[in-house]
Design goal:
The protein has an eight-stranded parallel barrel with strand order 1-2-3-4-5-6-7-10. It has eleven helices and ten strands. The protein has a single domain (3-307), classed as Alpha-Beta Barrel (TIM Barrel). The longest helix is centred in the middle third of the chain and has 21 residues, at 93-113. The two termini are 28 Å apart. The chain has 309 residues and is α/β, with parallel strands linked by helices. Helix 8 (206-219) runs parallel beside helix 11 (301-307) and helix 9 (253-261) packs across helix 10 (282-296).
Length: 309
């Protein structure tokens, strides 16, 4: 291989911000160590226990040390995912109150850790209908921002598979939420590959991949895109079932991920995997290696036509 081609491919790999959701068990510093251990340049964490509302306060000294070490590390982008209990679309008063209080707490923790944004699922309307759910999400976001006027961390609404009564499988729903929020400039979008695939976008084909971004640009705008979750899907296209699988071993396959990895318009956007893993993270290492190999390979005719759109 000519040296110039080697340099070009090496530069492309460096430009891709790639990583994983890593465990924060033991604190954020442990999470940073885990991310660096598997070669991440981007990372996602939970800033508190993800299955309960109450959690001990964040240690300020540890938060400062996290910021210092991260600034000296290879981690270019670090962000968080909200706990799974949050449902901003609910019409239940108690759950709504708990969800808002939790988001405020998580955003404050994110600010202390210097995290750029907090990813959250829009939520489930629980049978009340998408219009009612959209109104609830927008009102909740307005209240959160009113109570945190100086918060630097953005909230990123995540695209969903549309399972059950979940909002966010349709980009128009996300757009309606954003348009109703007074401080909409403080909102972003996180796109999940398994979710958009289950929602009906066949990203295994050049046509499907192009359609995905045409619709995204039409309803949301590329300036809203803050992050991508790269997950294969156990469920078929259009199934509306949210089931993550290892990269290349699910229904999407490596062809679909090659489009994302070789898309120059996605350079600088952090991409993290949320695939199944054990405590030694060997699965993360394997999945990230597969994704990096797709950056390095010479683009085939399909991926060339996609990145020129």
């Amino acid at each position: 291989m000519p040296k110039t081609e080697t340099k070009k491919k090496g530069r492309a790999e460096k430009d891709v911000l790639l990583g994983a959701h890593v465990s924060a068990a033991g604190g954020p510093l442990k999470a940073l160590e885990r991310a660096l251990q598997i070669g991440c340049t981007a990372m996602q964490i939970f800033v508190k226990g993800n299955t309960r509302w109450e959690f001990p306060p964040l240690d300020s000294a540890e938060a400062q040390e996290f910021c210092r070490r991260r600034s000296e590390s290879a981690i270019n982008k670090a962000f968080a995912h909200s706990i799974y209990l949050v449902n901003l679309a609910t019409s239940d008063p108690l759950l709504r109150k708990k969800s808002i209080e939790d988001m405020i707490d998580e955003l404050q923790r994110c600010d202390a850790l210097g995290l750029e944004f907090l990813v959250v699922h829009p939520g489930s309307h629980g049978g009340a209908g998408s219009e009612a759910g959209i109104k609830c999400v927008a009102k909740a976001l307005d209240e959160i921002y009113e109570r945190l006027p100086d918060c630097q961390c953005k909230i990123c609404l995540e695209t969903t598979a549309g399972q059950g009564s979940a909002l966010g499988a349709d980009f128009r729903e996300l757009n309606e939420i954003i348009e109703r929020v007074a401080s909409s400039r403080r909102l972003g979008i996180c796109l999940d590959t398994a979710h958009v695939f289950a929602a009906g976008y066949d990203i295994r084909t050049p046509e499907g991949y192009v359609q995905l971004w045409e619709d995204f640009d039409r309803f949301l705008g590329r300036d809203r895109l803050c992050a991508l979750h790269l997950n294969d899907s156990k469920a078929p296209c259009g199934s509306r079932v949210d089931r993550h699988e290892h990269i290349g071993k699910g229904q999407i396959g490596t062809t679909g991920f090659r489009f994302f990895m070789q898309d120059k318009k996605l350079r600088g956007i952090p991409m993290v995997i949320e695939t199944p893993k054990g405590p030694d993270m060997k699965e993360d290492v394997e999945n990230l290696a597969v994704l990096r190999s797709l950056v390095s390979r010479e683009a085939n005719r399909c991926s060339q036509s996609v990145t020129k759109r």
